[in-house]
Amino acid sequence: MADVRTYTLIYVVLLILGTAKFVFFEIDIPESAAIGGTIVLAVIKSLLIAAYYQHLREEPRAITYMMVVAVFMVFLLTVAAGYSIQ
Asked: How far, in Å, CA of 86 to CA of 84, rounded?
């Protein structure tokens, strides 16, 4: 199990990434680039939260792979729902 120092470091990184998402829309870059950057940062934040706060780093690889498949299936369902709405 990770120690308090690791959790504090991850928290600070998450705070910096959250602030960066705000900064993307405040600086003078195209909106599509800001949205793309925000999506990339959101994926990084999700991976950090799943790995450390949900303790997937310490689980057997089979559980991690099962979680990856589940997230991929949710992504496919979201794309399919978005396609059917159009």
From this structure: 6
Same domain, 9 and 39: yes
Q: For 58, phi and psi rounded to 5 degrees?
A: -95, -5
Tens of each residue's pLDDT in the chain, 86 residues = 668 898 999 999 999 999 998 898 899 899 899 899 999 999 999 889 988 888 878 888 898 889 889 989 999 999 999 888 86
| Domain range enclosing 50 | 1-54
- The verdict on 16 and 40 lying in the same domain is yes
Q: What is the DSSP track for 19-86?
A: HHHHHHHHSSS-HHHHHHHHHHHHHHHHHHIIIIIS-GGGS-HHHHHHHHHHHHHHHHHHHHHHHHH-
Asked if 64 and 56 count as a contact pair (C-beta separation under 8 A), the reply is yes
